[in-house]
Structures are given as structure tokens and as C-alpha cells.
Amino acid sequence: MRVRKSNGFMMARNVFYLNMVVLLLLNLGGTRLTSESQTDELTLTLETSEASPPTETSAPQDTETPFPTLIDSPTTTSTAATSKATNTQISDQSLSGMIVPNEVLVRFRRRATQETINQCIQSLGAEIQSYIEELEVYILNVSPGRVVQSVIELNACPDIRYAEPNYLVQITDVIPNDSSWGLQYGLVNIRAPQGWEIATGSSAVRIAILDTGIDRTHPDLANKILTGYDFVNDDNNPQDDNGHGTHVAGIAAAISNNGVGVAGVSWGARLVPVKVLNSAGGGSYANVAEGIIWATDRGAHVINLSLGGSSPSVTLQDAVDYAVSQGVVVVAASGNSGSNFVLYPARYSNVIAVAATDSSNTRAGFSNYGPEVDLSAPGVSIYSTSLGGYMNRNGTSMAAGYVSGLAAILRGSSNLSSPSAIAQQMQNTALDLGLPGWDDFYGYGLIQMDAAIGPVYVDPTATSISSPGNNAAPSPTSFFSPPTFTLTPTQTSLPTQSVIASSSPTIAPGETALLTVSETPEVTIQESPETPPTSQNWFVPCCGIGLILLGILLFWRTARRKRDFGSIRAR
Fold this sequence. Notes:
Blueprint: H1 7-36, E1 42-50, H2 79-87, E2 99-108, H3 114-123, E3 127-132, E4 137-141, H4 147-155, E5 160-171, H5 185-189, H6 192-196, E6 206-211, E7 229-230, H7 244-253, E8 270-275, E9 282-284, H8 285-297, E10 302-305, E11 307-308, H9 314-325, E12 329-333, E13 352-357, E14 375-378, E15 382-386, E16 389-393, H10 396-411, H11 419-428, H12 449-453, E17 519-527, H13 539-570
Parallel strand pairs: 6-8, 6-10, 7-8, 10-12, 12-13, 13-14
Antiparallel strand pairs: 1-17, 2-4, 2-5, 3-4, 5-9, 5-11, 15-16
């Protein structure tokens, strides 16, 4: 007997078909949402503002590079800014002293063939000087006086990812004029003796000092120095010819508890000398970037950059990003002009930017400040190793050395290894100075060794301090105390009188200049990796599946009722 379809059956069928249509539309929408979650490879924002030198009262200004790099359909936020940027007159002469003459840094897109690369370079009349393979960056020699024009022409080429000048960097210390200033008060102020009661650092940890080199013959350093490289002279002899790098190295990790000279923050850490600055304390971003890559690939755990420049650089930031991605802690000096402008590379967010304090834990007048400052450390009249002996120096360079030494001790613990975790530990345990909480001048405050080390080294087994022979490197010994430990000062072997090196450095205060033009287009280049679809995209197919199941259930229930009803009618 033929059974007439009930209204419930037809309703269930209609619901089922409607659900299928809704599911199709929702899944199409989900695909759209997924594609929209992908981020453009590079986003460029142009903003034009009147440039003025930073002052004590003005807000921090970002003197970005004056070369708009239009890459991958950039987003321009202001038409007026674009027109002004085009009209801004920048020349090689106006950048004199801030860039390496006749050199340009270029990175081609991966789609570019070698033939395309050669044609592009030859069209400029340029030559390849060298190649930073890890960053895919060419260092080109261009015609005299054509750096700016070459950068503009190169950035117009669709096969070029970016082109920029090879900016200069400078060491960031100020030479003191009073030899009677204290010897090693800095170690007392950061509570190093109390910290050494807990741990002195592991010899398995390496601190790369990217600077003027290190004096490999110095009795307080020699036995801790590992193989390094000289990127200034392109050889494997990074001997210091200035004294700056030797001074920073001694602060971070001089041979300690040996009855000779000074003590370093980390007694155990080894030193990797990477010479990127010449005898006058100057160098290029390219050398610094190559040095960062070299040190990272050779196992450095901490990289100290007591140097800085006033211009941003994609090449330099890529090198820093590479180091951090490999687990390297990068520490840099904030600068010594006393302005509200933190220098590069300290300005980068994944670099620990260090400001300087004096013996009374007050901000040094020369110390740069701003929102990028993370931590503070002693930087006025710091007594440390130098060429031919020991001497006092001032600068955020010195302050960075203290932070690198503490970072090395923390890195030696199996409980703390990532750069962000190490930075966080130092920030959380710093002595708050200035305004309550974080501030532009001190960051999170003055590093405190015992407070930073204590929670990390919690092994209750204690060991005694051994004194290695004269001029010998200390054995890799860590000092532990129970979780409920009592910290007491430890007297270390410090010099009883000041020995000043006979050679006098020639670096003068305020030696780092900032680029200022009448109208500076501020350029922000953000290179963002593709973002995978988020878990929110699962909401759409799940809803669709739920609707299908609901439709099937209604269909089944109605069909069953129809069958039962039909069988009754048949009887």
C-alpha cells in the first residue's frame, strides 16, 4: 500500500537540504577566513614628521632610514607623506660620516635568477665585494658619491627585496678624566659577591665580544680566550688595537679568584673575540651583521654589542633575529649622547638594551634613554682590563658587559636557556630605580646577581671555592645553596692599587651623531612570516557537521514514524 509522505518527512528533508547549502556557504567562508589570516610578507608604513634632535623633555623619536623601500604591495598610510618623502633631498654628502662610502647592502628575492642579479648589478656599474650567505645579502661597491642614488634605483627593481646603505657604528664608551675613581664598585652594586655564593658560571658557556678585539696576551684574559675572527682585516687574528673590547671582556668574564688584576662577573664563561671595529672604534653594519652570524654559528650563547648606530637596518636586524632564533642572548649598549634615542641594535625589541648608572645607582648623564631600555648596570668609572694593564672607562658599553656576564651565568643553568626567559629573569629581579616599576631611564632597574641566580640554581649540594694557580683559568665550578639559603658577601681578590695603561684611547665623548633632515620620512619595514590558520577556523566546519547530524536525526525520526504509520495503515 502506498503511503503518502507526511508533512514531518518533507520538513526533515527540507531541513537536510538547507543544512547542506548552509554548510557549503560556511566552508567557503572558512576558506576565505583562512586566506585572510595570512600576513603580507612585508608591510611598509610611511609617515612624515618634522625631525628635531632628541631632548630631555621631548618624546622619543625614531630617526628611521630616509629610503622608502616599497616591497610586496606596501600599504601607504599617507599620500602627503609619500609626496614629501619623494621631495626630501638626501645625498651622499648629507650622510657623510654615517655610511660606508661607495657601499650598498642588497638582498634579492629568491625568485631572482643569477642572470637577473648580474644584470641588475652591472646596470649600476657596481661590483660585488662580498656576500653574507646566511642573510642572502650582497655587499656592493658602487661609484663614488652614488650610494643614495644606487639605493633608490635598486629599490625600484621588482627582483630586489631591499637595498640600503652600509651604515657605520661606533663604540659606546666615554673616557674618564679622573683616575682616582673607585676600582670595582660595580660588582658590589650588582651584588656579585652574594651571587658568587650561589654560582660563578660554567666554562661551557661562551660570550662573544663583538668589538675592537680582545688582547690575547693579557694575563687576566689569555687562558679564557677561544678562537675568534677579525672582520675588519678579514683574518683569524682578532687582536685588540684599541683597548675597548679588552675592557668590556674583562668586565664580563676576566679570570677571577686568581690573585691577579680584576674579577669578572662570570668566573667560568669563555670569551670569543670577534673584531668588527677598527683601531679608532669605528665599523660598519655589514661587519657587525657578519660577526653576529659567525658567532652564532660557532656556538656563542651570549653576544655582547657595546657599539651602536643611529640608523635602522634590515641587514642588522635580520642578523639579530637569526641569533635570537638560535637561542643566543643578545645584549647591547643604549648609547652615550644623553638623549632620548636608544641606538641600534639595542633599539630592537629582541635585544637587551642596557643603560648606565654611577656608584650611587643614579643614571649616568650620558646614558641614552627611551622605551627600549630594558636594564641598567654600572657604567661610570669602571675599572677593568685594557691594553698593557688596567684602566677606568665610562659608558653604556661597560654597563652592557655586566649584563652579558650575568646572562652567561644564567645560561649555564639547565633551568633557564631561552633568551626571553633569561631576560625576564634579570628584569624580574632587578633593583627598581627611578619611578616605581619600569621607566625610560633605568628600564626595570639595576641588575642584582644573587636575586637573579638564586631561584635558578636550587641544587642543595654546596661546593667549596677553589683557587686556581696564578694566571690560570678557573675550573668550571658552580656554587649552590639550598632553596632556603642565606646570602653572605664573599671577599674576592681585587687589586690594591690602580694601574693605568700607558696608552691613552682617543675616543671622545659624544662621538655618535644622529641623522636629522628638515623633513624625515619615517619608514617602518615589518617582515612578517605567514601566519597559519588559527583554531577559530575549526568553528565553521564543526558547525556544519553539527547541522548535518541534526538533519539526519530529524530525517531518521520522521522516516521511522512514517514507516510505523504506514504499517498501521496497511493493517
